[in-house]
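Page 37, continued from 36.
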């Protein structure tokens, strides 16, 4: 944070949201993020700058559902910028809602020069480079789409015993992060009627079981080898024009948006099950806000010997403000806090 006087520090941010998922983009005041690669920079933040994450994400300046973005120099020469995603518990390897918001931000702030009605560039995330497409209408940025890193099914129809639920079936898929998928009716829920607390309780039990009993290993990076969240769906996986519902639960909290990396993963799962074909668009709706993304598989690829797909996800982001956060050294709660 930039020093303003001997006991006062300031950090400036731009506030956005995508489908209700907030994104707090650091504009100024953060020390240099050191490291040769994007994963080195991520580790540097964890080891040296984690107090800044807590300052921005925790109360009284943030909340449990807050997400943030720290822009860094990309080490991949094909990428315009790099980004590290932060939240109240730590760091994420990918955030689809964040990418959609950053698509507008990068063009609007002229971090790269726009190209008339359609701008295309890459953002380097910890999970890999993500291609971003930003449409403009009447001189204003509008719809943003991105092409995912290779998305693949890690475990299909895996049986697992969960406390309070018994033996259930889950699928584990990577779409920039690892998610475990389960259908609402299979675990006694109805996404259109169940209370958020009940959904979180079920997801927490599944999370504990997966972390205890399944060893998740990304084929390329140990830094990506962990479960990011549980996605409960309404089970409408065969191709249809009607929207299908996603509910992301991570760290006992309900995601606000349809979850970009979750939509990516679910498209990969549907494609692996031959429920959809290439270029067949699906609409994914958030159970929390009813906001929607449109997604489709656009290309088959092989990734470290696994069948995978590149997925296109599209949505809209909006500006919600700008902030200037202050820290006084004598404040006993200067680093922030969370009430669990």
């Amino acid at each position: 944070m930039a020093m303003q006087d001997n006991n006062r520090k300031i950090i400036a941010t731009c506030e956005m949201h995508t489908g209700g998922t907030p994104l707090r983009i650091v504009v100024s005041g953060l020390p240099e993020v050191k490291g040769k690669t994007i994963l080195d920079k991520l580790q540097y933040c964890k080891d040296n700058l984690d107090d800044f994450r807590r300052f921005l994400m925790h109360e009284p300046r943030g909340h449990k559902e807050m997400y943030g973005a720290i822009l860094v120099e990309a080490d991949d020469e094909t990428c315009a910028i790099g980004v590290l995603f932060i939240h109240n518990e730590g760091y994420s390897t990918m955030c689809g809602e964040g990418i959609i918001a950053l698509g507008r931000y990068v063009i609007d702030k002229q971090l790269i020069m726009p190209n008339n009605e359609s701008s295309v560039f890459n953002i380097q995330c910890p999970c890999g480079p993500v291609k971003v497409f930003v449409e403009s209408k009447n001189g204003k940025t509008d719809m943003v789409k991105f092409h995912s890193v290779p998305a693949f099914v890690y475990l299909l129809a895996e049986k697992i015993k969960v406390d309070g639920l018994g033996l259930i079936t889950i699928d584990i898929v990577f779409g920039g992060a690892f998610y475990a998928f389960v259908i609402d009716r299979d675990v006694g829920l109805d996404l259109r009627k169940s209370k958020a607390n009940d959904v979180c309780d079920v997801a927490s039990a599944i999370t504990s079981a997966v972390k205890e009993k399944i060893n998740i290993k990304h084929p390329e990076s140990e830094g990506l080898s962990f479960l990011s969240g549980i996605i409960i769906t309404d089970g409408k996986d065969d191709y249809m024009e009607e929207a299908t519902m996603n509910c992301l639960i991570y760290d006992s909290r309900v995601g606000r948006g349809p979850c970009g990396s979750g939509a990516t993963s679910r498209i990969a799962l549907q494609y692996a099950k031959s429920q959809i074909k290439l270029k067949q668009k699906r609409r994914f709706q958030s159970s929390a806000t009813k906001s929607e993304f449109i997604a489709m598989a656009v290309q088959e690829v092989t990734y470290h010997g696994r069948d995978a797909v590149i997925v296109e996800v599209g949505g809209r982001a909006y500006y919600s403000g700008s902030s200037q956060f202050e820290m006084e050294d004598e404040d006993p709660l200067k680093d922030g806090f969370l009430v669990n």
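The radius of gyration is 20 Å. Flag for discussion at group meeting. The mean pLDDT is 93.
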